[in-house]
Design brief:
Elements (H helix, E strand, L loop, with lengths): L1 H44 L4 E4 L3 E4 L2 E9 L4 E20 L2 E21 L4 E9 L14 E12 L6 E13 L3
Parallel strand pairs: 2-8
Antiparallel strand pairs: 1-3, 3-6, 4-5, 4-7, 7-8
Length: 179
């Protein structure tokens, strides 16, 4: 009887582990299906946007022309469409035996458009101009513990939908454009 109780407890434990295992994968599967369904809704509403920059090697004071283009299949509203020229500072340092990493984004220039009504089938295109300030440091990625990188950030705010965010890397050269 004692052996039979041990076998039943083992079977019960194995079933419990199996149920937890199946339940965990059930949640993961449901999450994947929900993400695919959400992506399907988004692609029915719109195509993925394109962002084009006039250069990927900018000089100080040089304008960078940025074009945003996106086709919408259903009528919608773009609450805000924003582009930013961002300097990212990345630093790794030690304090005692601990190693720390800090990242800081500094918006150096930005441009935006507020509230755009979009008709079904319309392709929206906006042109922006960003400029690298004259006091800005150039891209610096040679050191192991300090890096300065530049990027153009795109942020499309669609009410009732997930916002679309994208980045485009830019190298800022350590020379002034002849203006």
């Amino acid at each position: 009887a004692l052996i039979m109780a041990g076998i039943l407890a083992s079977i019960h434990g194995a079933l419990l582990v199996l149920m937890c295992f199946v339940g965990m994968f059930g949640y993961v599967g449901a999450g994947i299906l929900a993400a695919q369904q959400w992506q399907g809704k988004i692609t029915r509403l719109m195509d993925f946007p394109t962002m084009l920059a006039s250069t990927d090697h900018a000089k100080l004071l040089e304008p960078i022309d940025v074009t945003y283009r996106q086709t919408f299949h259903e009528a919608t509203t773009i609450e805000t469409l924003k582009v930013q020229l961002v300097l990212r500072e990345w630093v790794r340092y030690t304090s005692g035996t601990d190693t720390h990493t800090d990242t800081r984004d500094i918006v150096m220039d930005e441009d935006w458009v507020d509230m755009t009504e979009v008709r079904a089938g319309e392709t929206v295109e906006h042109n922006f101009t960003l400029k690298v300030p004259d006091h800005a440091p150039p891209t610096w990625i040679l050191a192991d513990d300090n890096k300065l990188t530049w990027m153009i950030k795109l942020d499309v705010d669609l009410p009732g939908w997930l916002d679309y965010k994208d980045i485009y890397g830019v190298i800022v050269m350590p020379e002034v454009n002849n203006v």
